[in-house]
Amino acid sequence: MLRMDRLLEGLDPEQRAAVEAPRGPVCVLAGAGTGKTRTITHRIAYLVQRGHVSAGQVLAVTFTARAAGEMRTRLRALGVHGAQARTFHAAALRQLRYFWPRVVGGEQWQLIDRNKLRLVAQAANRAGLSTESDSLRDLAGEIEWSKASLVAPEDYPAAAARTSRDTPAPAEQVVQVYRTYEELKNQAQLLDFDDLLLHTAAALEEHGEVAEEFRDRYRCFVVDEYQDVTPLQQRVLDAWLGERDDLTVVGDANQTIYSFAGASPRPLLDFPRRFPAAAVVRLERDYRSTPQVVELANDVIKSARGRPAGSRLRLIGQRPDGPKPTFTEFDDESLEAAAVAQRVKALLDEGVAASEIAVLYRVNAQSEVFEQALAEVGVPYQVRGGERFFQRAEVRQAMVALRSAAAHEPTGELPKVVREVLAGIGLTDEPPAGGSAREKWESLLALVELAEELVTTVDGADLPKFVTELELRAEAQHPPTVEGVTLASLHAAKGLEWDAVFLVGLVEGTLPIQHADGDEAAVEEERRLLYVGVTRARVHLWLSWALARAAGGRRYRRRSRFLYGLVPEDHPASRAVKREPLQRKPKPQCRVCGSALVDARSIKLSRCASCPSDVDEELLAKLRAWRADRARELKVPAYVVFTDATLVAIAEQRPEDVAGLVAISGIGASKLDRFGDDVLSLVRGER
Ligand code: ATP
Ligand code: MG
């Protein structure tokens, strides 16, 4: 464990006050990047160090699996082992598994997972509503909102009216769907995510001996991002606490971005009233971002209205100066995406790590054009959705396949065995182009990389050991990291930070989102989303928008209202319409048959996938072996060194010199620098 002086020296006086506050209620109300997450992890370490609690008695909760993983990593770095850091749901799931036989007994339940929309569809059908997937998702959203807000079916119409919700169908019909859904779900002995929380709270509220055992086990509670707590989660928290008050909460009301799902900053803002003895700490020094980014963040939130705005403080940047945020307007989305990809490449060449770059957007559907553009320039990326890694369909399918393969005691090198098994469910050598196929491929590849990692860390790693490792990870909700540029929605980016952040697609109708229009509270939430986005950047911040969706389309869009007054006066976009100088590249052609190439893979190969290949197999094998060595040495997945397509392109084109090498897409200045000599000597047969 870290020594006490070392533990405290990385804190400023206010953070220190929160860390050293006596056991009991503590509330940290502070802006983005001021060290809230850092403060709570240090507080946990401090309490454990001082002997006030043991690590095993601490339960820290947050809202996303990634944030919980981040918290665990930070705790480990402070030498705290055995403290629980989980999402509300993961914590509830664990507790329920443990207490269920005692409070209910009998049949075990199962999590509803993907069947959920099927049940909603049946319910919608009975209510005479459309079963089209968009409307099912909206209906599911209403059920989730109701349950998170502790609203029973019969109370839905009144609650929806009170909060002026946009109901996807007449309220009475939503009630009907909600009721039927619950019935079908109970009949099938399934629990949804909200049930996990409901049953956990009920187990503690209604069973004295369960509450007693639980409260004996957990004595100290910590909640990060408390501004996004729902009434249901608050109820669980209250059940955990009982009469006790050993609770530390941290949050920023100006980052409340889940109101639409029932979250409310009220418990955070009212905390000092509920616990008059609470130590209340405000932080205003921003350690994350340069003063240039901080200034923009302050400007974004300056014009916010409503209750959360009352708690805002002007952030004061602590880092050295950096570049000014840039604002750029484009004629269409593909130009915007191409420019982002070029800038990403330039950053990579400057030495910024791919994992330190993020492209953030308002809705997941926006990712595709950026994926395409990144694929075209050969930059690895990862799309982060709301869905947890081990819950993705392809990952669960992979687990089934791996488990059954493990039962047959396969022999051979683990990564190869894993690759073969996964090939059976669609893992190709080359990444497919575009959206969900690409995402699926990345997920499967991440499993192969995990196998590669296991081989280097565990003696005699075999398939059964690997499957156990995956199950442990799934349990801990700790997905393997994929080295690459992050593509994520603004919602998924909360609490995280990157050296370079691209905020893209900043047009009216997208940010604020169309359906927020005319609803002041909803528009304010959209403004907070932009604030969350801006404050993710440490150094480089890019903001952009496109006037038309498709190339050559009508330029009818307007840039986001939130940008007015922020785009510098002398910026071309502040005058009329700006012409983006970026030229469209000539369309690449197949070097064998001459036809136009469209997908990333054939562009890299400079030929159609179906045209005859003149690959030098022997060279290719050498290149692959060399890549495996380098990847192991650099501790990165192999495709970060070079993708398969790049290796094939090298083995086909056999570049003799640097000029020939850089002509292959995917080989930029930084790759040339690091690997150029190796590759050229392999091609020349010198190695
Ligand atoms: P958010 O509101 O986005 O969740 P946060 O308030 O939780 O932000 P942290 O993530 O804890 O902020 O901290 C932001 C960054 O500043 C981190 O990289 C953290 O390590 C660093 N940091 C925080 N406090 C200090 C400090 N006293 N000295 C140096 N660096 C600090
Ligand atoms: Mg945080």
Write the layout of secondary structure elements.
Elements: H1 4-9, H2 13-20, E1 26-30, H3 36-49, E2 58-62, H4 65-77, E3 84-87, H5 88-103, E4 110-111, H6 115-126, H7 133-148, H8 156-162, H9 171-187, E5 190-191, H10 193-206, H11 208-217, E6 220-223, H12 231-241, E7 247-251, H13 266-269, H14 271-274, E8 279-283, E9 285-286, H15 291-302, E10 316-317, E11 326-332, H16 333-349, E12 357-361, H17 367-376, E13 381-384, H18 393-407, H19 414-423, H20 435-457, H21 463-476, E14 485-489, E15 498-503, H22 520-534, E16 537-548, H23 600-605, H24 617-634, H25 638-641, H26 644-653, H27 658-662, H28 669-683
Parallel strand pairs: 1-7, 1-8, 2-3, 2-6, 4-5, 6-7, 9-10, 11-16, 12-14, 12-15, 13-14, 15-16
Helix pairs in contact: 2-3, 5-10, 6-7, 6-9, 10-11, 10-12, 15-22, 16-17, 18-21, 19-20, 24-26
The protein binds adenosine-5'-triphosphate (ATP) and magnesium ion.
Describe what this molecule looks like in 3D.
- The protein is of the alpha/beta class.
- The chain folds into four domains: 177 residues, P-loop containing nucleotide triphosphate hydrolases (Rossmann fold), CATH 3.40.50; 77 residues, Orthogonal Bundle (Arc Repressor Mutant, subunit A); 254 residues, Rossmann fold (3-Layer(aba) Sandwich), CATH 3.40.50; 85 residues, HRDC domain (DNA polymerase, domain 1), CATH 1.10.150.80.
- Strand 9, helix 15 and strand 10 form a beta-alpha-beta unit.
- The chain binds adenosine-5'-triphosphate (ATP) and magnesium ion (MG).
- Magnesium ion binds next to helix 3.
- Adenosine-5'-triphosphate binds next to helix 3.
- It catalyses: Couples ATP hydrolysis with the unwinding of duplex DNA by translocating in the 3'-5' direction; ATP + H2O = ADP + phosphate + H(+).
- Pfam families: HRDC, UvrD-helicase, UvrD_C.
- Its EC number is 5.6.2.4.
- It comes from Saccharothrix hoggarensis.
